[in-house]
Predict the 3D structure of the following.
Amino acid sequence: EGVSLAGIAIGGGAVWVADPQVGKLWRVETGPNPAKRAIPLETWVAGVSFGEGAVWVTNEIADAVHRIDPRTGDSRRVGGATAPRAVDAGEGNVWLTATSPPSENAALPASVCRDVYFSGEGSPDVLIVSSLPLQGDGRQWAQPMIDAIRRVLEQRGFGAGTFSVGYQSCDSSTAQAGGEDLFRCGFVAKALSRNLRIVAVFGSFTSPCSYAQIPIANQAPGGPLAMISPSNTLDDLTEDESLYPSDVRNYFRLATPEGYQGPAQVELARALEHRRLFLLTSRAGEYAPRYVDGLRAYARRVGVRIVGEASFDPEAEEFEQLVHRVVRSKPQSVAIVGLLVPGTGTMIRELRAALGPEVAISAPDAFYLPKDLRKLAGDAAEGIYVTNYGIPNDKLPPRGRQFLESFASERGGEPGPDFAASYGAQAAEIFLDAIARSDGTRGSVTEQVRQTRIQNGILGDVAFDPNGDLVEGPMTILRFSRRDFIVDRVVRVRPSAPSR
């Protein structure tokens, strides 16, 4: 069951294997048809040894050593060491290897992190580090982000106020995973937290990786370590308070979270001058109730009237009664909340036949599957609107387009894919401005990132709410035309963030 197994030991009639990803120690009996049992510990357990009548397990990320009774499976945490790695037991003792304590010169692992990029005398005062996937599909976005960060540093002369600033790129992916790996993500975050010259982290790329890294960065020595993600959309990253044990928000994102999709559907209706909207929600509950709650609240705020609501069965084969109900409400727009499955394709066919082409139909990013949409909805797919996150290259504001043109000219005319270089560059500028306003400590830099207020920047106006989300989130509206989606427009939504 383990996705990424680590340490292994033999003793007490069993094989003991650590599973860092799910946070368990597996006991596997020897012999034919071996039984196995999981002993829950915590994520990142890795080193294992058997000796002195017990199983010993280390957790470098959590600074923990566990003693497990091999007969009962009972575990207890024993006096540990800072970042314990390998463990062995025998001759009346338990022996550990551990990393050195945090310092300004704590080296980042060469197998994971590239050399420091810096032009100036001596070593930089502080470092910005990225945690991005340099292996697998994510690399096509990661490399332009890295290049853009370097470009901004060059433009700023590797300086921020009175501080000289260097940059280092770290790889949060593995070849085996084909992208970001949770154990690697935790390992990178721990390594970054231990080098006290690092005051800002760009990343991570995927939401699960950030879920692993945020608590580690939040408890970093010297104060919470500021993070800016270019691409995380999971709502929980800013809503789950357990990720912030220090009670200080250190994570911010330039990506628009999932919860902005409902308001974006409303904002589209408003942009089309449609004041009457019908809401259709899947009974399967693929989207959390807060998605619909956010849509309703935003509609009330901006004056779009929800003239009717109904739930639909995505596995149904016909929707005649539902469609009649929608038609009777005389909507100008219909907002669908659900996944693209055969049932929703049929529903779109029936809606379009009854409502005609004048009524706009919108759906969330789960419908961003052009071949499937065409197959399931047929000609009725024409004109369907779908929400997507962020700002594509050709819709950037003037300063963003100017940066991208200059950036592309140095890369053979190729700026890279959407949502890449522009996001890396904007994050770099935020970090450098924050460092310039700070006293150079982690806590001060984090506070200054929180105070960011940018007008007419690379991504337009940028400010963060108390949770670390954008105060005003850009959403791209795509429209299906013939056989594919085209960019129709970019809308900006301002959901009210929960107070803290």
The CA atoms of residues 274 and 332 lie 6 Å apart. Residues 7-98 form a domain with the Thrombin, subunit H fold (CATH 2.40.10).
